[in-house]
Structures are given as C-alpha cells and as structure tokens.
C-alpha cells in the first residue's frame, strides 16, 4: 500500500532567499551595464592620444592634458560651491518656514480666580496685597430703581386713562 505524501510548499525563508538571489543578479547586471556605458562614452569622447613622435611632442600633449584637467577641476569646484550655496539657502528657507508657521498655542482653559489670588500668583507669596474690586463699584440703590419703575407704570396708566376718556367722549 503506497501512501501519498502531502505536497510541501516552499517556506518563507526559501522564498526570501530566492528573491534575494534574483535581486543580486539584477544588481550585478546593472553594474555591468553601467561599466559598459562608461567605456562607450570614454571611447566616443576621449580618443586615444597619439603617442608616436619625439619627446617634445609628448611633453606638449602632457601639458595640454594637464591644462584640460585643471580647467575641469575648476569647473567641478565651482559647481560644488554653487550646490553648497543653494543647499544652505534651502536650509535657511526651511528654517524661515518653520519660524513663520510658529508654535501652535493650545486653547487655554477658563480658570475662575479672584483678584487677590491672581495678584498673589503674579507677585509671589512674599507680598501681601488685598484688592477688593467691589468696593470701587458704584452703589446702586434698589429703592431708586423701584421708584422709577412706579413712575413708568403711573405714566402708562395715565396715558391709558386719557385715551379711554377721549374714546368715550366720541
């Protein structure tokens, strides 16, 4: 009697190793292509120097090559200086943006505090200052308000009676 063995699926580590192998082959292929592109560029733009001739001609060729190298180095230095300058400007502008945005202040909670406790918090515990703000308020007598109210009611009543008399005479 032959029993069928269950089919085993590759584990996660096998899949990961396979993916890594494929990625490594891709990277290797890209480096080879980059080297080939460099060689093609150099062959196209930099022809092999003619080394046949006397020593004076070879010295002249060397001087020309050194001058070309110096010129290229100066251009590279200028380009690097320009890049560092723009990088610094970018950093300064980023800092300005952060400064302009500012720090968002949280909403303050309402706190009930008397004037005495507020002064004590501001001045500290050493100074004893009491401030009764209610004493400075103008005293309003309730009786005066009631008298004014009665006067308004009386005026309204008299006004109504005048109208009633005028209407009844017609």
From TrEMBL:
GO terms for cellular component: troponin complex. It comes from Sander lucioperca (Pike-perch). Belongs to the troponin I family. Troponin I is the inhibitory subunit of troponin, the thin filament regulatory complex which confers calcium-sensitivity to striated muscle actomyosin ATPase activity. One of its GO terms (molecular function) is actin binding. InterPro entries: Troponin, Troponin_I, Troponin_sf. One of its GO terms (biological process) is cardiac muscle contraction. This is Troponin I2, fast skeletal type. The keyword Methyltransferase does not apply. It comes from the Eukaryota. The gene is TNNI2. Pfam families: Troponin. Keywords: Actin-binding, Muscle protein.
